[in-house]
Design a protein that fits this description.
Two copies of one chain form a homodimer.
Chain A lengths: L2 H13 L8 E3 L6 E4 L5 E10 L10 H17 L4 E12 L5 H14 L4 E9 L4 E9 L17 E5 L5 H4 L9 H11 L3 E6 L4 H12 L2 E5 L12 H6 L6 E5 L14 E8 L3 E5 L5 E3 L9
Parallel strand pairs in A: 4-5, 9-12
Antiparallel strand pairs in A: 1-2, 2-3, 3-6, 4-6, 7-10, 7-11, 8-10, 9-11, 12-13
Helix pairs in contact in A: 2-3, 2-5
Chain lengths: 298, 298
């Protein structure tokens, strides 16, 4: 069973839960879950695993492993327009692994740099590969509230931050900056004009397809508009390569072309229309299903 | 490096964090972390891993794996006197694993039974053993607040819920009840007379030693008082076997001998005195260091 099918299955189950869990504002199926506390404060929560041989190659420096483990989970907070509060890290360490001390030092340093202190954890030995499971806790933008995948409307334009493609081959997947500042700034600047948002882990085609599905709309991407890294020659690769960890969002009205605090470019890459699915219009004028481009994590 | 050393290392690092993280009330080193929200609400957080071949044997029924994964993490909430709000589950699945669907169904059912809905997750394929990492979110007792490991005082008596020993050999480690009701009732009944509390994952000797260390006191356990399961003939085994998931707590003044809601027995097993360490007084009158009895998870 593929991750997308499993997640759909989990999501279906969660909808069947009794309504007595009043604290759960958003359950499975978005970048973060959203809980409401007794006084009404909203908390964002997300968990991600980083597994050797799957998400990083053996021999990757310890500090890069620590960085990616935290940055991936923090990117889920950025995708909701949120800010980090704290993190918990669970590590499964092979018996042969000798750098546990350095790994945890690096995780603490990275976490502190993200203003996301490690407040708990668990360590176990494993006969399998090294794995780090990071749970992040955050808070949504105070005025805008959590930015969901399900708030795209027909007529919205579709945007991405930064440039796409070649993350794995270039090594950028080990050093990307989660778009926290950009996500917060979009909430500040666009407010309710900001529609849906997601972070790009599995490729623009697949992830924009998730917005379309969650929002009950269709998304049309234009290959000629996709901003590519200089080492990515092919628009199709930029749409299908995973692990960009840029933000994809929809919005109505004017959207600045650059985030003033960070200089990150903002590029319109398509439109939201009525219907379903996510298509990519190629330079040839042909269109193809984009939601099956890219890859499944896991 | 052993887990206890690593956790001490992590704890030391966390103390060096700048004081700007005002939301963190309790960091690493207790059963749960405690965060404070903008309005002052307290949230409990804990994460635990369950790894095939380490925490359960290959061939264990899927529903028991799901049960233990959730129950272990929820036991950490019980150890703070808290209640569950929600959980996140990360699963690393071997390519050969065919029961993902049944596993997640079971996790949702167990989570719902604990009133702790699964609100998020992550699924990845692994070349290693099946592992489930469960993060739980909860709230502390409204009046008593979080029950820490560090609040034992010389003069307190030391108690345990239920009976100890033989959890792994009997299979009880796959079916134990986290002592949520008992933890909440202790907060209700004892209030500020309730001192420190921990759940027994690594054996009474080792875990009571953690209370002693965190509280800056010594604990003296009396082997003749330890309540054993009928299949456990040896007091030393009851003190050193892990995975009881009973509560160990300290208290001043009168303590009931049974939790009225659940019938769980409460037994005094020792005393808190000035000094450091945790000793076990044997029937022979000899004492031995109890904090190195039991085993290290991981």
């Amino acid at each position: 069973m593929r991750e997308s099918e499993l997640l759909a299955h989990i999501y279906d189950r969660s909808k069947a839960l009794p309504g007595s869990f009043a604290e759960v504002v958003v359950g499975p199926g978005d970048d973060c879950a959203v809980l409401r506390s007794a006084s009404g404060d909203l908390t964002l929560l997300s968990v991600d695993q980083l597994i050797e041989g799957r998400h990083f190659e053996p021999g990757t420096p310890t500090d890069r492993i620590a960085y990616k483990a935290l940055a991936r989970s923090i990117s889920d907070l950025a995708a909701m327009g949120g800010e980090p509060t704290a993190a918990l890290a669970a590590a499964a360490l092979p018996d042969s692994f000798r750098d546990a001390d350095a790994l945890f030092d690096a995780m603490h340093m990275v976490a502190a740099d993200f203003a996301c202190p490690l407040v708990g954890g668990d360590i176990a030995r494993t006969t399998g590969p090294l794995s780090l499971t990071v749970t992040v806790v955050g808070s949504p933008h105070t005025e805008r509230g959590p930015v969901l995948r399900s708030d795209a409307r027909a007529g919205d334009a579709v945007f991405v931050t930064g440039r796409l493609g070649g993350s794995l081959t270039s090594g950028r997947h080990l050093s990307f900056s989660p778009r926290l500042a950009e996500g917060g700034w979009l909430c500040d600047t666009l407010g309710d004009r900001l529609g849906a948002m997601i972070d790009l882990s599995d490729g623009l085609g697949r992830d924009a397809g998730r917005i379309a599905l969650a929002s009950g709309v269709a998304i049309e991407l234009d290959a000629s508009l996709i901003p590519r890294h200089p080492d990515v020659t092919d628009a199709l690769a930029a749409v299908s390569d995973g692990e960009d960890y840029e933000l994809c969002f929809t919005a109505r009205g004017e959207v600045p072309t650059r985030c003033p605090q960070t200089g990150t470019v903002i590029t319109r890459v398509g439109w939201v229309v009525t219907g379903s699915g996510c298509t990519l219009r190629l330079d040839s004028g042909q269109t193809q299903d984009a939601s099956e481009l890219g890859w499944e994590h896991g």
